[in-house]
Fold these 4 entries.
Entry 1:
Amino acid sequence: MKSPNTDARKVILIVEDEPDVVRLLAFHLQRAGYRVAHASDGLTAINQAFDHKPDLVLLDLMLPKLHGLEVCRLLKQSPVSRNIPIIMVTALTGLDDKLKGFGCGADDYVTKPFEIRELLARIAQHLQASEARSSRA
Ligand code: CA
């Protein structure tokens, strides 16, 4: 069970090592009413997801210390984090990478440069779906 939290805003964990992209994402997410957490490498991402259980993870693939695909696989393997929706955000546009992303359990996949309104729409959709899942459980 979640601990009582007076702040009802959803928390989005941005996993990204490029400061410019982090700033851009954080700006738009906060403006859309989300709280933002950030990890700049794969290991920190795992720890943050386990400790703080964000409502959704935006996951870059090319990360220091641990590749995004490994991060995704580990998060989706653990009962602690497997229900957190993961949207991969990456410059890799090849079909192989996309398929690998889905193969490791990612819920969605957005390629850079992304359209921020599309990304926000996808985030809202996944948050809604995961809320529906957890209220049925
Ligand atoms: Ca990167």
Entry 2:
Amino acid sequence: MYRKNAWEHLADGERAKVMAFAEKYKAYLDAGKTERECVTEAVRLAKEAGFSDLNAILREGKPLQAGDRVYQAWMGKCIMLFIIGEKDIECGMNILGAHIDSPRIDIKQNPLYEDSGFAYLDTHYYGGIKKYQWVATPLALHGVVCKTDGSTITVSIGENEGDPVFYISDLLIHLAGDQMGKSAAKVIEGEQLNIIIGSEPVKEEDKWNVKANVLRLLKEQYGIEEEDFVSAEIEAVPAGKCRDVGFDRSMIGGYGHDDRVCAYPSMAALLDFEGTPAYTLCALLTDKEEIGSVGATGMNAKYFENTMAEIIANVKGTESNLVLRRCLRNSRMLSSDVSAGFDPNFAGCFEKKNASIVGNGVTFNKFTGSRGKGGSNDCNAEFVAMVRRICEDAGICWQTAELGAVDVGGGGTIAYICANYGMNVIDAGLPVLSMHAPWELISKVDLWMEYKCYCAFIKDAEEISY
Ligand code: MN
Ligand code: MN
């Protein structure tokens, strides 16, 4: 059903399924506050659903068969899940892609200092944030500290009841005359995002010292020395669990919906798939989308292509580059990322006929980008038609949208990168309010329609001849 309110079109008994799926998603969101944690949880869920580690299969030289379920994690920050299909892999795959990194505040490599009775961690934010939203709110610290002896210390502080949290201060309103006159971009500046982590000094060589006390506690409780921050990746994120929003509990507020609200159902569609698919299925959860898909774990890297070369060598017994090219070219993909949900408070930034409406279901963006579609993957109309048919056949509430009104702004996803292979790719996702804020808002019925759409797509999408 196109552009209809999904709550009004649920089948008898379907509301309970909406709510039950939302609970599973909430658990994933709470377990995965960093890309690494998302991968760890994905591996756990994949194993539970009978998926095997592809690396072990390749090492043993075991041939993959139709119906086999495998996963491969990459650098602990990306994960790919596959179900091998009946058809020749040259016919391409049905792929669900999304990203698992979210905007946040990263700790610098030389972060620790003391000033006026406080110990601080200095930071450099990650992704596009309104910096003023991240002050005067409880923060948790998540990440890893890699030691020179090869060991890794995993850190997660601030989520459990009884854990301490961390804090970035804002200026009191009483003295904020000048600050309130600044543009929002300057109200809090990047170098003011300093996290308070302690204030009780310890006496060291006759001098009282707050930083020394923090270092003592880090050493005692975690085995971390000051220089270890150099080889650490620690992310400050909003502390606490996601929550139901509204008297009707129809929505979820939480950190990191962008883009775990697409990543989780993409993965779940494969985890829940029963039997042997016609085409090989893939769920691809990638990293670094929020900073341009760069680095060894971003979509611009070759890890996905490398994994496909390994799978093809296994199932086809060939290292032919041509077979790999055909497989990728003939694939079909929903590149899923959140859409800008129409917000009546800011109606002027949208064009309502082409906006993603909360409650109207899974959203397709034929293109993203900005200023005349710049930087977008402008999906082929033929593929849009196939996606329409799949949604209609499966009784899914769906809609189409652009990211805001023309020339107001814009944004990109991983779609254009996968489209480089020649595959058919369309941006899919669901509407989010307050995207990139510490707490974002989504609708449970949109999440459900998104999941149903992914399940239908991997089952029903097929090759397109042009
Ligand atoms: Mn995103
Ligand atoms: Mn984003």
Entry 3:
Amino acid sequence: MALSNSLRQGRRLLCQHRGAVAVAITHHDFSTSSQQQDKHSFKCLIVGGGAGGIAMAAKLARKLGKGQVGLIEPHENHVYQPMWTLVGGGLKKMEQSIRPQSDVMPKNCQWIADTAEKFDPDNNTVVTGKGHEVKYEYLILATGIQLNYHLIKGLPEGFKADPQLCSNYSMFTAPKTFPAIQNFQGGNAIFTFPNTPIKCAGAPQKIMYLAEDYFRKNGKRDSANVIFNTSLGVIFGVKKYADRLTDVYKSRGITVNFKHNLIEVRPEKREAVFEVLESDPKETVTFNYDMLHVTPPMSGVDSVRNSALADENGYVDTVKETLQHKKYPNVFGIGDCTNVPTSKTAAAVAGQCGVLLRTISAVMKGKTPKPRYDGYTSCPLITGYGKAILAEFDFDGQPLETFPFDQGREMRTMYHLKKDIMPEIYWQMLLKGLWNGPRVYRKMMHLGLSR
Ligand code: FAD
Ligand code: UQ1
């Protein structure tokens, strides 16, 4: 019953928002819009209309005026991905995270409803999926990160076969998570973390804490083994928050298996196979599951990966303090698509977009951009219904907290910041080019004594 509801919701979303589903699942089946593509040369061309692309388009269209900024983005809908943790926890509906792309596109920016297929930075040209050549003086890459469910044997097909198999990382599978939590009657509830960089590194465990809390509140906790199987060797990359999260998972009776990487799902037997990383001889372990939440392996998007703009790992090769490309001075990167060594989040995009505007403005005037980005990123680590730890830190993993109290504690205010305030900041400020992260508020709240 719950499965059919969830699949019905999935199908409805698939019909209404086909493009965004496709990017979540395959990144290939791009939809198009009837938008006129009348101009093929721009002072500034942006590729990708997610958080970073739209924020930069808003800033640059305001600065440069009509006809100067073009943005290539194939999807008819814009999605607010941070809400999908809340969708998985039954706190929001998927529909609340989706708005038409035309509603978020700045009015002075020309939307090219197409994909960027080939990059030719030596000739300042991008070739689109429909075969158009788009010329630019300045190029910003904001293509995000690609989800590679297909690299796990048995996926993505397995999602259709088993209602207890879910993933908050795509808009098609996130609506399956809460029904899976509700249907869980005991046994193993397993949550995974892959062996690649991912966006929002806290999200794989946030949903676990919500599920554990739900089981506890609904009389199922005693019969549940809540298990976090992570490829990493630590629970979180920043020591301060890792220490606090260790207290959280130990006090809640959660089992954490480090260096466990999901390689196969057998939905018909409800089995999940993990390779044990660094084991010699190579070891695999098979777990039975009664609920499995998968965080897929991720990579740079194919068209960027296969271009001269990528580093050896497939991410846009960017100077971390200025966001300028290392080899092509008229090319820039923002957000998840870059190799900037910080945690990939919308909060990092916010911290980067003000820096990038200043970098591009300097380059346009023939000046050398100043190093300004400190790696600011943030992860609201929901640890249950009504509580969260707000992690904020820089390139060195040093806490860079906005509020003048210890954010390492689980707090109700931080939960409401994530659930009720951040969506408004995203839609009303970030996407309008008006939010450069909380730096100024941090300085005010620390009486000017913080960085
Ligand atoms: P995206 O917003 O992903 O946008 C990339 C865009 O590029 C997409 O629209 C895509 O269609 C487009 N694109 C891709 N390839 C091409 C191409 N070839 N041509 C043209 N366009 C292309 N962040 C937080 O700050 N806080 C949170 O609490 C948080 N929670 C999260 C929870 C989940 C479950 C998920 C999935 C993410 C979460 N994030 C969170 C991360 C956040 O959503 C991303 O880091 C952010 O969206 C990155 O912005 P971006 O612009 O780099 O990429
Ligand atoms: C943030 O700026 C941001 O981007 C808009 C997020 O993404 C949704 C966040 O989750 C967070 C926590 C921030 C940081 C903002 C504050 C007020 C601490």
Entry 4:
Amino acid sequence: MSHPLHNVLVVEDETAIADTVLYALRSEGYAARHCLLGNDALAQLRQQAYDLVVLDVGLPDMSGFEVCRRLRAFSEVPVIFLTARNDEFDRVLGLELGADDYMAKPFSPRELVARVRARLRRAGAAGAVAEAAGWQQLGRFAIDREGRRIRFGEQPLDLTRYEYALMAALLQRPGAILSRAQLMDRGWDSDADSADRTVDTHVKTLRAKLRAAGADPDPIRTHRGLGYALEA
Ligand code: CA
């Protein structure tokens, strides 16, 4: 069990294939989950951070390409496509969508696991380089906590102290809903009375800056009565 922290999502409607892949991944120590449909996979990927997605191109509700296109709106997670036996894999489209690799069925589960391992190693190496420079990459965001700086894509965000504190708190737990009180705790001192409005005001200006930096759709989600969450 050398890499228990790596979560892999397998999206495949043929349960026999899915079972084989899940078994192969789990016996190599990966945490692997399974979705049958594209829509379920997208919901799952919004909820939880995965390190890699194994994605069948021929799904019943939408194509794997479409899943990948929608996924790229909120995540840069590596994707390995699975394609049907006789289908010519559209490499250009795959590349455009940021697919990292593909395998044609029938494939050897061991070969797939080897590709998963290789891809995760590359991602790990890239992460290590970013960390060495003080930057931590989180989806399309990068944060330098010591330097109190945040980037979206390649674009540095010009944030006030409060906006930075809000964004840093959201980035600490992508996908989790943080209440206004929790966001206040991390950001600044103030009396509880004005706290909620203060948070809302700063979220508003933060959103405008994110939009200006090209973050569309809005990565900050409002959960009515609960607080805010960053798209995982
Ligand atoms: Ca299929």
